[in-house]
Amino acid sequence: MNRGRVSRREFIRRSAGTALAAPAVLLDPAAYGSTAHGLASPPKPVPPSDRVRFGVIGVGMRGFSLLRTALELPGVECVAACDLYDGRQRLAQEVVDKPIPVTRQYRELLDNKDIDCLIAAVPDHWHKQIVVDCCNAGKDVYCEKPMTHHLSEGFEMIEAERKNGRIVQIGSQRRSSVVYAKAKELYAQGAIGEVCLVEAVMGRNDPCGAWQYAVPPDLSPQTLDWETWLGSAPKRPFDPLRWTRWRCYQDYGEGIPGDLFVHLLTGIHFIAGITTPPERAFSRGGLVRWKDGRDVPDFMTTLYSYPNFQVTVRVTLNTETQEYTQFLGTGGIMRVRENDVRVYAQDGKDHEPCAPGWPKKMKAEYVEKWHRENDPRPGSQQAVADLRFNAPPAYDADRDHLWNFFQSVRTRQPSVEDATFGNNTAIACHMANFSYFQQTVAVWDAAAKKIKG
Ligand SMILES: NC(=O)c1ccc[n+]([C@@H]2O[C@H](COP(=O)([O-])OP(=O)(O)OC[C@H]3O[C@@H](n4cnc5c(N)ncnc54)[C@H](O)[C@@H]3O)[C@@H](O)[C@H]2O)c1
Fold this sequence. Notes:
With about 450 residues, this protein is an alpha/beta fold. It has a domain at about 50-175: NAD(P)-binding Rossmann-like Domain (Rossmann fold), CATH 3.40.50.720. Helices cover about 35% and strands about 20% of the residues. The protein is built from 13 helices and 17 strands. It has helices at about 5-15, 60-70, 85-95, 105-110, 125-135, 155-165, 180-190, 225-230, 240-245, 255-270, 360-375, 395-410, 420-440, and strands at about 25, 50-55, 75-80, 100-105, 115-120, 140-145, 170, 195-205, 280-285, 300-305, 310-315, 320-330, 330-335, 340-345, 385-390, 440-445, 450. Strand 6 (about 140-145), helix 6 (about 155-165) and strand 7 form a beta-alpha-beta unit. Bound molecules: nicotinamide-adenine-dinucleotide. Nicotinamide-adenine-dinucleotide (NAD) binds near residues 83, 126, 145 and 229.
């Protein structure tokens, strides 16, 4: 190998081509509108007049975690909890660590004048009714993702939010993440040029990841109000597995799209400023492994068409993989993960003459001319640089998302993830399922507010 030639190439690569290594920059959440950032820097105290008193409806896996995180925030207080299962009422009291009223009737919380707002972390088939009831009762509400179980519910929820002037915030925490805020800024600045493709992936490989949660030993029709839990779902006899593993059944959840796509889609909608559902969706997938009676697939890939780019979302419960979303642009790749965002910059130019299959003399003359015209002079060209931003240690997007909700309740400033935003990502999830189950391309008909095949 000609060492001189290699070093010349290397010179060109370094001065004009491949990007320079990126030192990591620590993100400051305060610069992105949140003051609840990370456990490392405690938020400022809140005056007693600004205290927000909330109630929690649903104290399961998610409600428990939200409750615990909310109690770390200044100026908020949990004053009541509701769950249909007695064990979860006890759990709420353990977390709050003081006697609070607990009930099976969430309407008691809506009638309680001491309560400013609710956190609702119930299975998806209950989201619409609880959000509408909260709004009609004059209460603000933080409702978990995905916003809806059925397509039509979203428009009813938007109307309840609008007509009652309530704060509705959907619980996709990436919407408040400092990492995603930085990615949005980089995207808007054109850090990776023109984007035509986005890829988002996530993978799990264990029973818990596939929603096979353990059944509490004391769960029975005596300790759980099973009839109310069924809500608008088809009536059926008490079934502990359905209560515990509701994600596995279409009666209560939306499988992989509603549980997991929604997080990835929220990130994409937020970063790229998307304010509508996708135009089309086409899904493939199957149920190959977790054949435990569930009626939803355990892996799915969906190709979405948006006006400006195509998106593929792939989630499997059969193989552990990294979770990331990457935007592919003419200026490189922006890869967003839970705690960091990186730009792998590309200049999109030739760094060598590109004239394959020419006779020798013609080629030599062209190569000579090409170098004369294209080789950078030292110092004359700006090198493209990779970028790397990390969330602070112990950063918690849930904390910032809850903080944003309580701030909206205090200030009446709009919710960061209102019902319209939540509805668009939920519709994208319904489109993925429509395509999968109907085995057709799902098309969003905005005028009719319907998905068509
Ligand atoms: N944002 C996230 O990262 C995240 C993570 C997990 C779950 N979630 C969402 O949170 C929600 C709850 O999920 P989970 O895993 O905590 O479920 P879960 O089954 O563990 O808990 C739900 C609880 O709600 C109670 N409940 C159901 N209907 C009720 C009603 N009408 N009134 C009072 N209580 C009722 C149940 O008894 C149960 O205890 C779902 O929408 C899920 O998609 C979000």
